[in-house]
Protein backbone atom coordinates (compact mmCIF):
# COMPACT_ATOMS: atom_id res chain seq x y z
CA UNK A 1 0.00 0.00 0.00
CA UNK A 2 2.74 2.44 0.98
CA UNK A 3 4.70 1.48 -2.12
CA UNK A 4 1.69 2.28 -4.33
CA UNK A 5 1.16 5.58 -2.52
CA UNK A 6 4.83 6.48 -3.01
CA UNK A 7 4.58 5.79 -6.74
CA UNK A 8 1.41 7.88 -7.04
CA UNK A 9 3.03 10.81 -5.25
CA UNK A 10 6.15 10.46 -7.42
CA UNK A 11 4.04 10.41 -10.59
CA UNK A 12 2.16 13.50 -9.43
CA UNK A 13 5.40 15.36 -8.79
CA UNK A 14 6.85 14.36 -12.14
CA UNK A 15 3.72 15.42 -14.03
CA UNK A 16 3.59 18.68 -12.10
CA UNK A 17 7.22 19.37 -12.90
CA UNK A 18 6.71 18.73 -16.61
CA UNK A 19 3.73 21.04 -16.72
CA UNK A 20 5.46 23.74 -14.65
CA UNK A 21 8.33 24.03 -17.10
CA UNK A 22 6.14 25.57 -19.78
CA UNK A 23 5.74 29.33 -20.13
CA UNK A 24 4.12 31.91 -22.39
CA UNK A 25 5.57 35.05 -23.99
CA UNK A 26 3.13 37.77 -25.08
CA UNK A 27 3.84 40.17 -27.94
CA UNK A 28 2.39 43.67 -28.28
CA UNK A 29 3.06 46.58 -30.62
CA UNK A 30 0.87 49.67 -30.08
CA UNK A 31 -1.19 50.56 -27.01
CA UNK A 32 -3.38 53.09 -28.76
CA UNK A 33 -6.93 53.72 -30.01
CA UNK A 34 -5.86 55.88 -32.97
CA UNK A 35 -3.25 53.73 -34.73
CA UNK A 36 -3.88 50.72 -37.05
CA UNK A 37 -6.15 48.27 -35.24
CA UNK A 38 -4.32 45.24 -36.65
CA UNK A 39 -1.28 45.96 -34.45
CA UNK A 40 -2.95 47.88 -31.63
CA UNK A 41 -4.67 47.27 -28.33
CA UNK A 42 -6.53 49.98 -26.41
CA UNK A 43 -5.36 51.03 -22.97
CA UNK A 44 -8.64 49.67 -21.58
CA UNK A 45 -8.18 46.24 -23.20
CA UNK A 46 -4.52 46.14 -22.20
CA UNK A 47 -5.55 46.82 -18.60
CA UNK A 48 -8.07 43.97 -18.83
CA UNK A 49 -5.28 41.63 -19.97
CA UNK A 50 -3.13 42.57 -17.00
CA UNK A 51 -6.07 42.35 -14.61
CA UNK A 52 -6.66 38.78 -15.77
CA UNK A 53 -3.02 37.93 -15.12
CA UNK A 54 -3.18 39.44 -11.65
CA UNK A 55 -6.53 37.89 -10.70
CA UNK A 56 -5.43 34.42 -11.86
CA UNK A 57 -2.02 34.52 -10.18
CA UNK A 58 0.21 34.50 -13.22
CA UNK A 59 3.91 34.72 -12.47
CA UNK A 60 4.99 37.61 -14.74
CA UNK A 61 8.79 37.66 -14.89
CA UNK A 62 11.46 39.49 -16.90
CA UNK A 63 12.27 37.90 -20.25
CA UNK A 64 15.90 37.31 -19.26
CA UNK A 65 14.83 35.20 -16.27
CA UNK A 66 12.50 33.14 -18.44
CA UNK A 67 15.10 32.53 -21.14
CA UNK A 68 17.80 31.75 -18.59
CA UNK A 69 15.54 29.13 -17.00
CA UNK A 70 14.77 27.58 -20.41
CA UNK A 71 18.44 27.38 -21.34
CA UNK A 72 19.40 25.81 -18.03
CA UNK A 73 16.43 23.41 -17.92
CA UNK A 74 15.27 24.90 -14.62
CA UNK A 75 11.69 24.44 -13.45
CA UNK A 76 9.38 27.42 -13.92
CA UNK A 77 6.43 28.13 -11.70
CA UNK A 78 3.03 27.30 -13.16
CA UNK A 79 1.53 30.17 -15.20
CA UNK A 80 4.89 31.79 -15.90
CA UNK A 81 4.68 34.60 -18.44
CA UNK A 82 6.79 37.39 -20.00
CA UNK A 83 5.50 40.54 -21.70
CA UNK A 84 7.21 42.03 -24.78
CA UNK A 85 6.71 44.95 -27.16
CA UNK A 86 8.12 45.30 -30.68
CA UNK A 87 9.41 48.52 -32.29
CA UNK A 88 9.51 50.89 -29.27
CA UNK A 89 6.65 53.16 -30.27
CA UNK A 90 6.03 56.37 -28.33
CA UNK A 91 2.73 55.01 -27.06
CA UNK A 92 4.65 52.30 -25.19
CA UNK A 93 6.04 55.14 -23.07
CA UNK A 94 2.85 57.21 -22.91
CA UNK A 95 0.23 54.45 -22.52
CA UNK A 96 1.71 51.03 -21.80
CA UNK A 97 4.49 51.84 -19.31
CA UNK A 98 2.27 53.64 -16.75
CA UNK A 99 -0.22 50.75 -16.77
CA UNK A 100 2.52 48.14 -16.39
CA UNK A 101 4.04 50.17 -13.57
CA UNK A 102 0.75 50.14 -11.66
CA UNK A 103 0.71 46.34 -11.84
CA UNK A 104 4.41 46.07 -11.08
CA UNK A 105 4.96 43.89 -14.16
CA UNK A 106 8.35 43.71 -15.92
CA UNK A 107 8.51 43.87 -19.71
CA UNK A 108 10.87 43.96 -22.68
CA UNK A 109 10.95 46.40 -25.60
CA UNK A 110 12.62 45.34 -28.85
CA UNK A 111 13.96 48.41 -30.67
CA UNK A 112 15.54 49.44 -33.99
CA UNK A 113 18.62 51.53 -33.09
CA UNK A 114 19.17 53.05 -36.54
CA UNK A 115 15.62 54.42 -36.56
CA UNK A 116 16.18 55.85 -33.09
CA UNK A 117 19.47 57.45 -34.16
CA UNK A 118 17.72 58.95 -37.20
CA UNK A 119 15.09 60.39 -34.80
CA UNK A 120 12.13 58.73 -36.46
CA UNK A 121 9.21 60.55 -34.87
CA UNK A 122 7.06 57.53 -34.11
CA UNK A 123 9.58 55.69 -31.90
CA UNK A 124 10.97 56.53 -28.48
CA UNK A 125 14.33 58.24 -28.26
CA UNK A 126 17.17 56.92 -26.16
CA UNK A 127 16.25 59.28 -23.31
CA UNK A 128 12.81 57.72 -22.88
CA UNK A 129 14.21 54.22 -23.23
CA UNK A 130 16.81 54.96 -20.56
CA UNK A 131 14.07 56.20 -18.27
CA UNK A 132 12.06 53.01 -18.73
CA UNK A 133 15.18 50.86 -18.34
CA UNK A 134 15.90 52.51 -14.98
CA UNK A 135 12.39 51.45 -13.91
CA UNK A 136 13.09 47.84 -14.89
CA UNK A 137 12.25 47.52 -18.58
CA UNK A 138 14.63 45.41 -20.68
CA UNK A 139 15.71 46.90 -24.01
CA UNK A 140 16.65 44.39 -26.70
CA UNK A 141 17.46 44.02 -30.39
CA UNK A 142 14.95 44.18 -33.25
CA UNK A 143 17.54 44.83 -36.01
CA UNK A 144 18.84 48.21 -37.14
CA UNK A 145 15.84 49.48 -39.08
CA UNK A 146 13.27 46.67 -39.25
CA UNK A 147 14.24 45.21 -42.60
CA UNK A 148 13.61 41.59 -43.60
CA UNK A 149 16.83 40.08 -42.31
CA UNK A 150 16.58 36.83 -44.29
CA UNK A 151 16.21 38.54 -47.69
CA UNK A 152 19.16 38.97 -50.00
CA UNK A 153 19.53 42.15 -51.99
CA UNK A 154 19.63 42.04 -55.78
CA UNK A 155 22.79 40.30 -56.98
CA UNK A 156 23.98 39.80 -53.39
CA UNK A 157 25.94 36.63 -52.72
CA UNK A 158 25.42 34.39 -49.72
CA UNK A 159 28.64 35.60 -48.09
CA UNK A 160 27.71 39.25 -48.72
CA UNK A 161 24.26 38.71 -47.20
CA UNK A 162 25.83 37.00 -44.23
CA UNK A 163 28.33 39.78 -43.55
CA UNK A 164 25.73 42.53 -43.97
CA UNK A 165 23.22 40.82 -41.67
CA UNK A 166 25.89 40.03 -39.09
CA UNK A 167 26.90 43.72 -39.05
CA UNK A 168 23.25 44.76 -38.71
CA UNK A 169 22.70 42.55 -35.66
CA UNK A 170 26.00 43.33 -33.93
CA UNK A 171 25.96 47.09 -34.59
CA UNK A 172 22.41 47.30 -33.26
CA UNK A 173 23.46 45.38 -30.17
CA UNK A 174 26.40 47.72 -29.66
CA UNK A 175 24.20 50.84 -29.87
CA UNK A 176 21.81 49.42 -27.24
CA UNK A 177 24.76 48.63 -25.00
CA UNK A 178 26.21 52.13 -25.45
CA UNK A 179 22.94 53.97 -24.81
CA UNK A 180 21.19 51.74 -22.27
CA UNK A 181 23.85 49.44 -20.86
CA UNK A 182 21.84 46.33 -21.67
CA UNK A 183 23.51 43.51 -23.55
CA UNK A 184 20.80 40.84 -23.68
CA UNK A 185 21.52 38.85 -26.81
CA UNK A 186 17.90 38.48 -27.85
CA UNK A 187 16.87 39.22 -31.43
CA UNK A 188 13.18 39.62 -32.25
CA UNK A 189 12.97 38.88 -35.98
CA UNK A 190 11.40 41.79 -37.91
CA UNK A 191 7.93 40.74 -39.10
CA UNK A 192 8.57 37.44 -37.32
CA UNK A 193 10.26 36.09 -40.46
CA UNK A 194 13.32 33.85 -40.42
CA UNK A 195 14.80 31.08 -42.52
CA UNK A 196 17.32 28.33 -41.84
CA UNK A 197 20.31 30.48 -42.77
CA UNK A 198 19.25 33.35 -40.50
CA UNK A 199 18.62 30.96 -37.60
CA UNK A 200 22.09 29.49 -38.08
CA UNK A 201 23.70 32.95 -38.10
CA UNK A 202 21.80 34.07 -35.00
CA UNK A 203 22.90 30.92 -33.18
CA UNK A 204 26.52 31.37 -34.29
CA UNK A 205 26.49 34.92 -32.90
CA UNK A 206 25.26 33.63 -29.56
CA UNK A 207 21.80 35.21 -29.81
CA UNK A 208 18.35 33.92 -28.96
CA UNK A 209 15.98 34.21 -31.93
CA UNK A 210 12.40 35.25 -31.17
CA UNK A 211 9.51 35.08 -33.63
CA UNK A 212 5.87 36.11 -33.84
CA UNK A 213 4.37 32.67 -34.38
CA UNK A 214 2.13 31.48 -31.55
CA UNK A 215 2.82 28.83 -28.95
CA UNK A 216 4.10 28.16 -25.46
CA UNK A 217 7.76 27.50 -24.64
CA UNK A 218 9.61 24.96 -22.52
CA UNK A 219 13.14 23.67 -22.04
CA UNK A 220 12.85 21.71 -25.31
CA UNK A 221 12.01 24.77 -27.42
CA UNK A 222 14.40 25.74 -30.20
CA UNK A 223 16.02 28.95 -28.90
CA UNK A 224 16.68 30.22 -32.41
CA UNK A 225 12.89 30.44 -33.00
CA UNK A 226 11.06 30.98 -29.72
CA UNK A 227 7.34 31.63 -30.23
CA UNK A 228 5.24 34.44 -28.79
CA UNK A 229 1.49 34.85 -28.67
CA UNK A 230 0.44 38.08 -30.44
CA UNK A 231 -1.98 39.93 -28.18
CA UNK A 232 -2.91 42.95 -30.34
CA UNK A 233 -5.62 43.60 -32.90
CA UNK A 234 -7.76 40.54 -33.64
CA UNK A 235 -5.77 38.57 -31.06
CA UNK A 236 -6.50 40.99 -28.22
CA UNK A 237 -9.93 39.50 -27.43
CA UNK A 238 -9.67 38.26 -23.87
CA UNK A 239 -11.98 35.26 -24.31
CA UNK A 240 -9.66 33.71 -26.92
CA UNK A 241 -6.46 35.02 -25.34
CA UNK A 242 -7.27 33.18 -22.10
CA UNK A 243 -6.86 29.81 -23.86
CA UNK A 244 -3.42 30.86 -25.05
CA UNK A 245 -2.39 32.21 -21.66
CA UNK A 246 -3.18 28.83 -20.15
CA UNK A 247 -1.53 26.81 -22.91
CA UNK A 248 1.49 24.56 -22.59
CA UNK A 249 4.28 23.49 -24.93
CA UNK A 250 4.53 20.20 -26.78
CA UNK A 251 7.73 18.33 -26.06
CA UNK A 252 9.13 18.15 -29.58
CA UNK A 253 12.08 15.85 -30.12
CA UNK A 254 12.60 16.70 -33.78
CA UNK A 255 11.05 19.08 -36.27
CA UNK A 256 11.66 18.42 -39.96
CA UNK A 257 10.83 20.78 -42.84
CA UNK A 258 12.64 22.19 -45.88
CA UNK A 259 12.68 25.84 -44.80
CA UNK A 260 10.19 28.24 -43.24
CA UNK A 261 10.80 30.67 -46.13
CA UNK A 262 10.17 28.51 -49.15
CA UNK A 263 8.89 28.07 -52.69
CA UNK A 264 7.55 24.63 -51.77
CA UNK A 265 3.79 25.01 -51.89
CA UNK A 266 2.10 23.43 -50.14
CA UNK A 267 4.91 22.93 -47.61
CA UNK A 268 5.12 19.88 -45.36
CA UNK A 269 6.18 19.43 -41.77
CA UNK A 270 7.10 16.33 -39.77
CA UNK A 271 6.96 16.45 -35.97
CA UNK A 272 8.40 13.85 -33.61
CA UNK A 273 6.95 14.54 -30.17
CA UNK A 274 6.01 13.10 -26.80
CA UNK A 275 2.37 11.94 -26.92
CA UNK A 276 1.78 10.68 -23.37
CA UNK A 277 -0.35 13.64 -22.20
CA UNK A 278 -2.83 13.93 -25.07
CA UNK A 279 -4.96 11.65 -27.19
CA UNK A 280 -3.70 11.46 -30.76
CA UNK A 281 -7.31 11.53 -31.93
CA UNK A 282 -7.58 15.05 -30.45
CA UNK A 283 -4.37 16.35 -32.02
CA UNK A 284 -5.32 18.77 -34.80
CA UNK A 285 -3.54 21.26 -37.04
CA UNK A 286 -5.02 24.17 -38.94
CA UNK A 287 -3.72 26.12 -41.94
CA UNK A 288 -4.12 29.90 -42.14
CA UNK A 289 -7.10 30.89 -44.30
CA UNK A 290 -7.59 27.27 -45.43
CA UNK A 291 -8.77 25.15 -42.52
CA UNK A 292 -7.88 21.75 -41.13
CA UNK A 293 -4.55 20.27 -42.19
CA UNK A 294 -4.00 16.69 -43.30
CA UNK A 295 -2.34 14.50 -40.66
CA UNK A 296 -0.44 11.30 -41.34
CA UNK A 297 0.85 9.51 -38.24
CA UNK A 298 4.01 7.71 -39.34
CA UNK A 299 4.39 5.98 -35.97
CA UNK A 300 3.23 6.48 -32.37
CA UNK A 301 5.25 9.68 -31.93
CA UNK A 302 5.72 11.09 -35.44
CA UNK A 303 3.17 12.96 -37.49
CA UNK A 304 3.40 14.48 -40.96
CA UNK A 305 1.39 17.69 -41.42
CA UNK A 306 0.42 18.96 -44.88
CA UNK A 307 -2.04 21.48 -46.29
CA UNK A 308 -4.94 20.27 -48.44
CA UNK A 309 -4.41 23.31 -50.70
CA UNK A 310 -1.64 25.64 -51.76
CA UNK A 311 -0.99 28.45 -49.29
CA UNK A 312 -1.34 32.10 -50.23
CA UNK A 313 1.84 33.97 -51.06
CA UNK A 314 3.47 35.65 -48.08
CA UNK A 315 3.13 34.78 -44.39
CA UNK A 316 1.09 31.80 -43.26
CA UNK A 317 1.04 29.24 -40.42
CA UNK A 318 0.26 25.72 -39.36
CA UNK A 319 -1.22 25.85 -35.82
CA UNK A 320 -1.30 22.53 -33.97
CA UNK A 321 -3.12 21.95 -30.67
CA UNK A 322 -4.25 19.14 -28.37
CA UNK A 323 -5.99 19.22 -24.97
CA UNK A 324 -3.86 18.06 -22.07
CA UNK A 325 -5.02 14.92 -20.25
CA UNK A 326 -3.40 15.81 -16.94
CA UNK A 327 -4.20 19.54 -16.89
CA UNK A 328 -7.91 20.12 -17.51
CA UNK A 329 -8.57 23.21 -19.59
CA UNK A 330 -4.99 23.48 -20.84
CA UNK A 331 -4.05 22.99 -24.49
CA UNK A 332 -0.74 22.07 -26.01
CA UNK A 333 0.05 24.62 -28.71
CA UNK A 334 2.62 24.73 -31.50
CA UNK A 335 2.85 26.98 -34.53
CA UNK A 336 4.96 26.61 -37.66
CA UNK A 337 5.38 29.89 -39.58
CA UNK A 338 5.75 29.93 -43.35
CA UNK A 339 6.69 32.58 -45.88
CA UNK A 340 5.69 31.38 -49.34
CA UNK A 341 7.69 33.00 -52.13
TrEMBL record:
PROSITE patterns (UniProt xref): NODB
Any single GO CC term annotated in Swiss-Prot or TrEMBL for this entry: extracellular region
Originating species: Pseudoalteromonas haloplanktis (Alteromonas haloplanktis)
Signal peptide start and end residues: 1-22
Cellular localization per UniProt: Secreted
Lineage: Bacteria, Pseudomonadati, Pseudomonadota, Gammaproteobacteria, Alteromonadales
Domain NodB homology: 79-341
UniProt-recorded name of the protein: NodB homology domain-containing protein
A single GO molecular function term of this UniProt record: hydrolase activity, acting on carbon-nitrogen (but not peptide) bonds
Positions in coiled-coil regions: none
Claim: NADP is one of the keywords in the record: no
Record carries keyword Signal: yes
GO biological process: carbohydrate metabolic process
Record keywords, A-Z: Signal
